[in-house]
Amino acid sequence: MSAETTIEEYYDALRAGEPLAAFFATDALVKFGIGERLKGPDGIAAGLHEQTRTTENWTVESHNLRVTEEEGSAWFADDVRMAWYDTESDEHHDHRTRWSGGLRWADDGWRFVGMHVSVPGDT
Prior knowledge:
Elements lengths: L2 H14 L13 E4 L2 E4 H15 E8 L3 E5 L2 E14 L4 E16 L2 E10 L5
Parallel strand pairs: 1-7
Antiparallel strand pairs: 1-2, 3-5, 4-5, 5-6, 6-7
């Protein structure tokens, strides 16, 4: 499996409301999201669990995924339209975002070691 396939599977899991923590390495450094900073594997797992618990109806549209793999490491960038419904605030969100990050090959496949999702300009 390629790093690109792993990223696409992450997008699919996000759309489907499936657990996401397994996509991250056990020593992952950080995941920045829109308005959040999840540090370390435990922080990332807890934040992603909460996100899955409190959101639904995800749209994830990749518009320019670029991935480079080299000797067990990979990095990526993408322009992604993300939309979701927040079940706690009863609000719908829709953003054009920029994604980037790094992955490392593990015995069982590619895992994110860091991810950054941001919105151009003010949110």
